[in-house]
Task: inverse folding
């Protein structure tokens, strides 16, 4: 019981001492208006930081400054790396576009379309790119129509050709002749 | 795709320029890395000239 009472006494004694700064602040507040109160708080915060900074040892100060510098440098490095990655990606895409075969039509010659002949035509195609195309398949057809929409529809549904031919760069390839079929 | 030969009616429409003859097709090819590419082509003849012209509207498709 005695010990308890002593402990209570001690707590009782400590309370006023811990409460004293608050009471001082309170007292300061009481002495001035609310603007002064806020200024006082700001000064206190700034003062605390300055006090802590002064209290920090030189090696620790150097470590903090170095950490901030390293963090900034890392952020800059990340930005530069992202930009470099983007440029490298674009260059790769450009290289892929340049270093690939480009097969297109050079000419299409129309034969006699009027009866009794069946409409016939031949297509000359060429690889305009710098790389060979190991397999090239061509398919063609004709349509007599007024609207281009039906041409688009037919192109969309057209299946790839069946005969595969390798095409070399810069070389015009034999004409493929079509005769219209049922 | 097309009929075996044009009917007299079709011939008349073609000669009068009412209907246009389209020659169209696709070229499928692969590059060295086996990536597939397609080129569509389209040419037309309106019966007034003997030559074929490339369809300008095809650009909107590719």
Result:
């Amino acid at each position: 019981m005695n010990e308890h009472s002593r402990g209570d006494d001690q707590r009782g004694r400590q309370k006023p001492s811990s409460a004293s700064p608050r009471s001082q602040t309170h007292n300061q507040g009481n002495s001035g208006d609310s603007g002064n109160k806020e200024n006082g708080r700001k000064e206190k915060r700034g003062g605390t930081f300055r006090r802590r900074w002064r209290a920090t040892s030189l090696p620790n100060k150097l470590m903090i400054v170095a950490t901030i510098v390293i963090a900034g440098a890392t952020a800059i490095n990340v930005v530069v790396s992202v930009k470099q990655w983007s440029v490298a990606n674009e260059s790769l895409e450009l290289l892929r576009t340049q270093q690939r075969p480009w097969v297109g039509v050079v000419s299409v010659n129309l034969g006699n379309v009027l009866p009794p002949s069946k409409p016939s035509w031949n297509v000359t195609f060429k690889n305009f790119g710098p790389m060979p195309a190991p397999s090239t398949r061509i398919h063609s057809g004709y349509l007599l129509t007024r609207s281009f929409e039906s041409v688009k529809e037919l192109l969309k549904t057209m299946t790839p050709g069946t005969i595969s031919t390798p095409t070399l760069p810069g070389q015009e390839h034999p004409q493929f002749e079509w005769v219209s079929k049922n | 795709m097309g009929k075996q030969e044009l009917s007299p009616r079709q011939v008349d429409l073609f000669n009068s320029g009412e209907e246009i003859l389209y020659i169209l097709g696709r070229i499928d090819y692969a590059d060295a890395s086996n990536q597939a590419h397609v080129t569509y082509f389209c040419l037309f003849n309106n019966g007034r000239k003997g030559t074929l012209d490339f369809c300008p509207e095809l650009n909107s498709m590719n």
Notes: Residues 8-60 of chain B form one domain. Chain B touches chain A at residues 1-6, 8, 10-11, 13-14, 18-32, 35, 37-43, 45, 50-52, 55, 57, 61 (CB under 8 Å). Chain B has one domain: 8-60. The beta strands of chain B are 20-30, 36-45, 53-54.
